[in-house]
Amino acid sequence: NGQSDDSLGRRVVARDLTFNRLIATTSSRDAVEFARAFAEGHLEAPRVLVLAGSAGVGKTCLIRAIARAGTRNGRVVLTTATQLADLLILAIRSDSIELLRRWYIRGDLLLVEDLHTLSSRRATQEQLALHVRTWIDAGVRVVMTAGGPIDDLAAFVRGLPAAPTSRTVFLRRPGRRDMRAIVLAMAKRSGVRLNW
Prior knowledge:
Layout: E1 3-5, E2 11-13, H1 29-40, E3 48-52, H2 59-70, E4 76-80, H3 81-93, H4 97-105, E5 109-113, H5 122-137, E6 141-146, H6 154-159, E7 166-170, H7 176-190
Parallel strand pairs: 3-6, 3-7, 4-5, 5-6
Antiparallel strand pairs: 1-2
Helix pairs in contact: 1-2, 3-4, 3-5, 4-5
């Protein structure tokens, strides 16, 4: 699947997942442009970027391309929402919340996949949003992926700073024309000739 885990359970990104390998279509063009601006640290890019959409629309590819680009510019931490929430709960229970905040501040870029796994955990969403604010105030940029309806993450979204500091970008499922463009581009890249 293009990734493995390091000794701390954090995800390690495959080296070939770059923006140059992504195929932007009409259904993903805006998301790819926001993700690229975010990865390149453009001044107009948000400090928090949430990539939302159903399974299979390219959220994971985008976050991995951001991670790949980010490794050239500083320390990147890639984790899942469940892992982060579990660490957050453990830190609160052990009265070491400040240590957790400082650990993530050591990074330049925090990438969190599968935010939708917190959909039924309102209090955790609120705490996570509070920590995201702390991390961005310290200069950390945060990008997250969320499958399913963003309405299920209302407590988290409400706790984020307003645009342009944070931005949610929705990826739509590609239509037939987009799928055809993707297949043709992949075939061309691979040197395969299709007779359609």
